[in-house]
Design a protein that fits this description.
Elements: H1 9-37, H2 54-58, H3 65-76, H4 79-89, H5 92-98, H6 104-117, H7 123-128, H8 135-150, H9 155-169, H10 173-186, H11 191-203, H12 207-220, H13 225-237, H14 241-254, H15 259-272
Amino acid sequence: MFEKVGGQMRPVMRAVKHLIRFHQLNLQFAGLMLACLFLTCCGANGSDGLPKGALGRTEPLVNPVLLGYYESFLESQDIDTFLQNILARYNDSTLLRLLESSQVETRRASVLALGLVGGPQCNTPVAARMKDSDPVVRRFAENALWGIWFRSDSPANNEELTAVRNLLSEERFEEAMTRVNALISKAPQFAEAWNQRAILHFTRGDLQKSVDDCREVVKRNPFHFGAMSGMAQSLVKLGKPNEALDVFKAQIKIQPHNEAVQAAIESLERGRL
């Protein structure tokens, strides 16, 4: 298909390579979030005995206590202290309420916190913030979703998936494949397990298998921009630009400000003319 469009393949691949670099940065930030999460256990009560979320139910949407935690984090860069403050005082429901604040800084603080502690019920509202008017909120939302996706099943399965991801980063591909196959058999509803296997297939050059697994991810999690991007990249490499274009168009609906995806769409549309 690409032979017919001559030089159009080159700008498409540049856009795809930009996407790959973009998502690698997101994965690194998500890894930091996950590492911070395992620094402490999440109890039902704060250090003062108050139920988690008690403070959040009464504080205003503008200038909440959360904002003070966030501003301290920006000054100190101490993510562990920020995490401890969140665990002591907040639950998902109060953070999601603050996510609707008209105050930009409060939305930034809330989405950052949800990336560290939010459960699967936070997926849809956090994904909606990829359309936020503030670019920092949008980037925080993208990073936060990776943390949420890795915490979307039972604690044991979440831990196993983290082990798979670590094996992948260590390039221990055979062991990673064995363990992720077992995890998918055990928890077929776990979207991020399918995504990690898709990454493994992509790394090994099994592009069609990667596409197939990415489709399984999106069936379970329609906001998984990582799987959409990976699927489109594989389809381009497989010489299926029309299918790649359809995937990128689906992705731009959930990430309307993603310039790299828009550039890929424009390149593929020119190639089809």
